[in-house]
């Protein structure tokens, strides 16, 4: 029984990641952060959304464990979390055998 609960929790986590990457702005933000850390203002440059909207997308990515933020004075610098995609990698590996 515990194993089926663990599998269900793992599937929910994978589905959440797929859902988060279903929004094109979040994909672009994640790709930019994968190249270099940045602030919400940096990330909003050249995108058709406000800095405030970027902050909301970053909160979702952060709550899913995909990005982390650190303060540099008053600025929050976001970066991709190294192990953030691990659940998705495990799922893909498991289903590509």
Largest sheet, in brief, is: 2 strands, antiparallel
Q: Can you write the helix and strand succession as a string?
A: HHHHEEH
Shape: elongated
Distance between the termini: 25 Å
Computed CA radius of gyration, to the nearest angstrom: 15 Å
SS class? alpha+beta
Sheet with the most strands: spatial strand order: 1-2
Overall strand count = 2
Beta-strand proportion: 5-15%
Low-confidence stretches: none
What's the level 1 CATH class? Mainly Alpha
Describe what you observe in this structure:
The chain has one domain: Winged helix-like DNA-binding domain superfamily/Winged helix DNA-binding domain (Arc Repressor Mutant, subunit A, Orthogonal Bundle). The chain has 97 residues and is of the alpha+beta class. The protein is built from five helices and two strands; from the N terminus they run ααααββα. It starts with a helix and ends with a helix. The chain is elongated, with a radius of gyration of 15 Å. The protein has a two-stranded antiparallel ribbon. It has helices at residues 2-20, 24-35, 40-44, 51-63, 86-95, and strands spanning 67-72, 75-80. α2 (24-35) packs across α4 (51-63).
């Amino acid at each position: 029984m515990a194993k089926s609960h663990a599998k269900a929790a793992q599937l929910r986590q994978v589905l959440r990641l797929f859902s988060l990457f279903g929004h094109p702005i979040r994909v672009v933000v994640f790709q930019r952060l994968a190249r270099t850390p940045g602030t919400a203002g940096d990330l909003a440059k050249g995108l058709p959304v406000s800095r405030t909207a970027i902050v909301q997308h970053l909160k979702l990515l952060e709550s899913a464990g995909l990005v982390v933020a650190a303060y540099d004075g008053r600025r929050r610098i976001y970066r991709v979390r190294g192990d953030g995609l691990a659940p998705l990698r495990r799922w893909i590996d498991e289903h590509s055998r």
